[in-house]
Amino acid sequence: MIANRIDTACKIAGVKLKTACTLSGINYGTLRSQMRNNREIPASSLAKLSSGLRIPIQFFFDVPAEDHSIETGLDRWQAAELANTEHAACSRAGFNVTTDHILDWYHKERGKLKNWEWFEDQVDLYEPIKPTDKIMHPVQIGKRSSTAERLMLAGNRDFYRIVGNFEEKIIQRAMHSHSMLEEVPYLVTDEDIDVVIKGQRVRAGYRKVTMRVTDPNRGPITAVFSKVTWLDTADNVREVNRV
Fold first, then answer.
1. 112-140 burial, b for 16+ CB within 10 Å, e for fewer?
2. What is the DSSP letter of 230?
3. Fewest CB atoms less than 10 Å from the CB: which of 72, 106, 126, 220?
4. Contact at 8 Å (CB) between 17 and 30?
5. What are the boundaries of each domain within the chain?
6. Distance CA 23, CA 36 (A)
7. 142-191 pLDDT, tens per residue?
8. Which helix (H) or strand (E) holds 188?
9. Burial class of 57 by CB neighbour count within 10 A (0 to 12, 13 to 18, 19+)
10. The CATH fold of domain 2-96
11. Which architecture, in CATH terms, is 120-239?
12. Alpha helices per DSSP H over the chain
């Protein structure tokens, strides 16, 4: 039951339910009543608890009966692994994946590309950079990744058509972070971009995590996850808080 999941999440986070509600911006009395009376708990409340307790929203969805031992000695990412199939529910609840979540996942999975369904559509995959490459070669552009959304990409073909027309210094900067994976397993950088795409100016800042991962089927691969930190709209620069 979701109520049990919430109790367990509080234990993992080391806080009482009332404190969890305060951290998450939820009315304590309402949630307590919903849990005690077995009433439906809105997905929006679960999304807020996920953010407030820094626990993936997948944790709150039911797992098979044989896995009830999860309530003792189970960390947040093991819980997420068990509930990975609930990605659709996670998206409906508006769970906001951050760079911290991605780094936690990376360390948990030791650089292996598995149990990543909950953010698969927000990450881009590329072939490892070769010395002769003039541009990155995408394997998969996530449908909801920052790259796809901000650069208005519909897929790999769009990537070459749009990114391929960027100034050389922009492409070289991106390739440099890819090539750095020969020395480190992952790289976190704060970058900005100012380009014109399809007649529209795109000016924004973003935090990017570039990772060397191992795909069970393809072998070594480069994964890139980024979150917009500021966005220049038509009127002003709008700050984006959680990255």
1. ebebbbbbbbbbbbbebbeeeeebbebeb
2. E
3. 72
4. no
5. 2-96, 120-239
6. 21
7. 988 988 988 888 878 889 999 999 999 999 999 999 999 999 999 999 99
8. strand 186-197
9. buried
10. 434 Repressor (Amino-terminal Domain) (1.10.260)
11. 2-Layer Sandwich (3.30)
12. 2-13, 17-24, 28-36, 43-53, 76-82, 87-92, 99-109, 146-150, 156-163, 168-179
- State residue 124 phi and psi, 5-degree precision: -110, 140
3-state helix, strand, coil in the chain (%, to 5): 45, 20, 35
- Please tell me the distance from the alpha carbon of residue 73 to that of residue 221, in angstroms, as a whole number: 33
The H-or-E segment that residue 224 falls in is: strand 219-232
- Measured CA to CA in angstroms, residue 222 lies from 44, 95, 118, 141, 170 at distances of 33, 24, 18, 12, 18
Q: How far apart are CA 175 and CA 169, in angstroms?
A: 10
- Written as six digits, the tokens of 26 are 């939820």
